[in-house]
Amino acid sequence: MERLTLDANRCWFKSKDPAFARYSLAPELSSFSGKPRFLLVPKGQPEARPLLVVEGKSGSAEIDTYGPLTSQSLGRRVDADLGRWTAGDDGCTA
């Protein structure tokens, strides 16, 4: 999950990708539940309800994604990026 979080931060936020300009990344990698995750929240509102949750499964390389953004057009982009990154490709190709 740490690598996925770093890739998301680099490719979506540090690159100033306009598709993610309205959001902020909130990592929660130290989870007592055994499910490290990162969240996308509205920019400037870290306490707001997450719009996207990317959560690791305990003891597995699999991830779950959920939240309102998954049913929007940006959800397809997120799925494609996460699919590449979990397969080992760390590129930022949109």
Tags for this entry?
alpha+beta; 2 helices; 29% helix; single chain; 94 residues; 4-stranded antiparallel sheet; 22% strand
How is this structure best summarized?
The chain is an alpha+beta fold and 94 residues long.
Describe the structure.
With 94 residues, the protein is α+β, with helices and mostly antiparallel strands. The chain has one domain (2-86). It has helices at residues 2-14, 73-86; strands at 23-28, 37-42, 52-56, 63-66. It has a 4-stranded antiparallel sheet with strand order 1-2-3-4, with helices on one face. A hairpin with a 6-residue loop joins strand 3 and strand 4 (63-66). Helix 1 (2-14) crosses helix 2 (73-86). The model has no long low-confidence stretch (mean pLDDT 90).
Please describe the topology of this protein.
Layout: H1 2-14, E1 23-28, E2 37-42, E3 52-56, E4 63-66, H2 73-86
Antiparallel strand pairs: 1-2, 2-3, 3-4
Helix pairs in contact: 1-2
